[in-house]
Amino acid sequence: MLFNSFEFLVFFPVVTVLFFILPHRFRWQLLLAASCFFYMFFKPEYILILAFTIVVDYYAGILIESAATSKLKKRYLMISLVANIGVLAVFKYYNFINDNITGLAGLFGWTNPIPALTMLLPVGLSFHTFQAMSYTLEIARGNYRAEKHFGIYALYVMFYPQLVAGPIERPQNMIHQFHEKKEFCYTRVVDGLRLMLWGFFKKIVIADNLATYTDSVYGNLHVQTSIAIVIAVFFFAFQIYCDFSAYTDIARGAARVMGFELVKNFNYPFRSRSVTDFWRRWHMSLTTWFNDYLFTPLVIRNRDSIKWGVVFALMVTFSLSGLWHGAAWTYVVFGVMHGIAMSYEFLTKKSRKRLSKKVPAFIYNPMCQALTFLFVCFTWIFFRAGSMQDAFYVLRRIPGVFTELSNFAVTNSKPIFDGTLNRLGLIYCGMFVILLETIHYLDNKFQIFSRLRTQRALVRWSVYYLTVLVMMFFASATAHKFIYFQF
């Protein structure tokens, strides 16, 4: 089983202390060994998959850079891309494709002779594959020189803080940092630990407690009330945000302690006023990856009809983005819905801008924010549901909320919540969501996290100890894996 939060709290300080004790020339070896151990803790033999793509991409990068012709350069790039996408296709999409072939063959009374494979999906496969692909793509575009140090390149792909769930880094940001000598800096170490503390708080207190509720509801949909289901839909939005952004904060904080800076992956996504704005704030490293390597090239190829070229590129990009998240039609539908929404916003940009000038900002902006949040919650039904049948069942049950509320108001007899979560637990979950949004509001308006750095030691340490106490007191009884580990 992969590291949980508490095991990471033992692993990280040991590696960090050794990192600062060792001379600079040995540090890359320590980090690479630690990264290998971290990955092999899940399933040791899967390190061979990483080793294969690392070797292929390392030599492909050198060959691409030294290629005498553009045709040869494209050939070496294609070898790299086929190797990486091939690994994804086999381990992540083989059974999905095969199951669909079986279903299609069954419609015609045929039998699919291709057997299914029983294998676990390597954790973080989509993340480190995309990071590796960005390396050879950047070299092919002439934006980066091939890294000649094999160990440093391997570390770029395997750096343990962000190995299994990102953020997805580019070679321009990361590789040079592994060559630079890192000195111990108290201020930087404290900043990193503070960011990690906030990440652990979001994961252990908020995400895991919300997961207790959402897992119970989605795991037993047919015995839930409509109100319980709708609450789960909204709770999942905050659960997935706290879960994923928590991992990013922990990864960025752990890297910062040692002197490495990872890219920011979230920027208050629930403040978005449009779906387009949402994807500029949510999982930003993935959004920019798809924008640079898929969306923009597709638009350029359709330059004769830019308007519909953009729509085509948006639909392809977000359909594949949905599939990137998981090998299931629910993820594809999730991506397609976002592609449709983005296309609508692109096509109606001028009319919406005219409307924004007619409606007062204090009405228009919150309305757009609320509609965007509702749309995102709606699409996450497909993201969270275990199947298309479950997703449509949730959608059919949503209107029942009004009936249940009216029945409760008239008779006061039918409980609007079942036994999925006791009332106290439900209140706690609601409090955690309110607390999260309050902290976000205060930080956005008054920069409370930045100001905490300048406060007296008594204030700072009081906040730290209070956070730890809350984590100890309100920690979920069940530890949940990070959601994005499965991607």
From TrEMBL:
Keywords: Acyltransferase, Cell membrane, Membrane, Transferase, Transmembrane, Transmembrane helix. One of its GO terms (molecular function) is acyltransferase activity. It holds the Pfam family MBOAT. It is found in: Cell membrane. The chain crosses the membrane at residues 7-26, 46-64, 76-94, 114-137, 149-168, 221-242, 305-323, 329-347, 359-383, 424-442, 463-484. The keyword Transferase applies. GO terms for biological process: alginic acid biosynthetic process. It is a multi-pass membrane protein. It comes from the Bacteria. GO terms for cellular component: plasma membrane. Belongs to the membrane-bound acyltransferase family. This is Membrane-bound O-acyltransferase family protein. It comes from Pararcticibacter amylolyticus.
